[in-house]
């Protein structure tokens, strides 16, 4: 109806995510509702300052706060459920001046849609494809006519053994400018130092519903969880404004530094409710690309955040 279509697409996206989850759920995110937080630090590599003049990349160690999450707006989704993919990782770096910057990434290299409108088309197709709908269902038609969406759903990895054995991808590109004024485009990659380890289908079927959310704090009581933060550098001619355009694997990977998680966060649920990560909260030396999906994210996240706080 007209009232619905007059809403900004970012708000329609949040409404549709909520509807797909059979929500709203009081106090939870409209997407990536189920999560767990941890804290630690980030130490940049010697090379990082040559990529960007951003304050957290100049040598000193910064405190970090991290939230891992399952996909969907369902706060009770079992961690090994196929719909709980992709996993999410959100990182907040505290900067020397007391400000902060965020990285918000997923467990798949790529995105199913090139624009927020196209993403809404996919979500609406899923919403119109209930069990009673005859084939070809709207979602089947959408996937058949959108190769990037098909690639996304077919390359989803199985659930990880642990959040400490899961790799994450930035998907959206940013422009990194160093002190000499040289700019390069790149996409984040976060690689677990414990190695990437995923469950077989049989193993996934045996996990308890909260196995990942339970395992992380238990692990951190005994040992640290470390990740390398890398940047995949675009070649001239690589599309930096389209999150469905996956760059070839032979592109240069620069090491930006090491993220070390040391402790669980006390009262994770309350901490999760009150924090909103924002991929466009950026310091000097890092700027957004013109990727329309990236540029739509803060508005969608703010709608979800304001609804969560209003509860
Ligand atoms: C137009 C496209 C997108 C829409 C509409 C969307 C929507 C949302 C919403 C509504 C939330 C909840 C935010 C909150 O309440 O704080 C969220 C969280 C999240 N999104 Fe997106 N998203 C989009 C694209 C992406 C992309 C491209 C990525 C990663 C590459 C991503 C990764 C995440 C992660 C990891 C979270 C959880 C953040 C947290 O732990 O607080 N999203 N998304």
TrEMBL record:
GO cellular component: cytoplasm
Cofactor: heme
SUPFAM superfamilies per record: Heme-dependent catalase-like
Gene3D superfamilies, sorted: 1.20.1280.120, Catalase core domain
GO MF annotations, alphabetized: catalase activity; heme binding; metal ion binding
Keywords of the record: Heme, Iron, Metal-binding, Oxidoreductase, Peroxidase, Signal
Top-rank EC class of the record's enzyme: oxidoreductase
Cited InterPro entries: Catalase, Catalase_core, Catalase_sf, Catalase_SrpA-type_pred
Family statement: Belongs to the catalase family.
Protein name according to UniProt: Catalase-related peroxidase
Annotated organism of origin: Novimethylophilus kurashikiensis
């Amino acid at each position: 109806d007209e009232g619905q279509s007059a809403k900004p697409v970012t708000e329609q996206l949040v409404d549709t995510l909520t509807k797909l989850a059979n929500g709203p759920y009081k106090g939870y995110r409209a997407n990536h509702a189920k999560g767990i937080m941890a804290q630690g630090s980030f130490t940049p590599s010697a090379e990082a300052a040559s990529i960007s003049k951003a304050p957290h990349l100049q040598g000193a160690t910064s405190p970090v706060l991290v939230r891992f999450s399952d996909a969907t707006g369902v706060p009770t989704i079992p961690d090994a459920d196929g719909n709980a993919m992709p996993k999410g990782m959100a990182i907040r770096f505290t900067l020397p001046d007391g400000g902060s910057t965020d990285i918000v990434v997923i467990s798949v290299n790529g995105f199913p849609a090139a624009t927020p409108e196209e993403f809404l088309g996919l979500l609406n197709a899923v919403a119109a494809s209930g069990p009673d709908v005859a084939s070809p269902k709207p979602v089947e038609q959408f996937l058949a006519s959108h190769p990037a969406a098909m690639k996304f759903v077919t390359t989803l990895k199985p659930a990880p053994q642990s959040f400490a054995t899961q790799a994450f991808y930035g998907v959206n590109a940013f422009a990194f400018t160093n002190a000499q004024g040289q700019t390069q485009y790149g996409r984040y990659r976060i690689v677990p130092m414990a190695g990437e380890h995923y469950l077989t289908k049989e193993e996934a079927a045996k996990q308890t519903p909260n196995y990942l959310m339970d395992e992380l704090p238990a692990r951190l009581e005994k040992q640290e969880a470390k990740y390398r933060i890398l940047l995949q550098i675009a070649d001239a001619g690589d599309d930096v404004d389209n999150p469905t355009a996956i760059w070839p694997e032979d592109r240069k990977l620069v090491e930006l530094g090491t993220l070390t998680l040391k402790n669980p966060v006390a009262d994770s649920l309350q901490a999760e409710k009150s924090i909103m990560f924002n991929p466009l909260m950026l310091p000097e030396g890092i700027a957004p690309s013109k990727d329309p999906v990236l540029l739509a994210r803060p508005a969608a996240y703010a709608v979800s955040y304001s609804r969560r706080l209003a509860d």
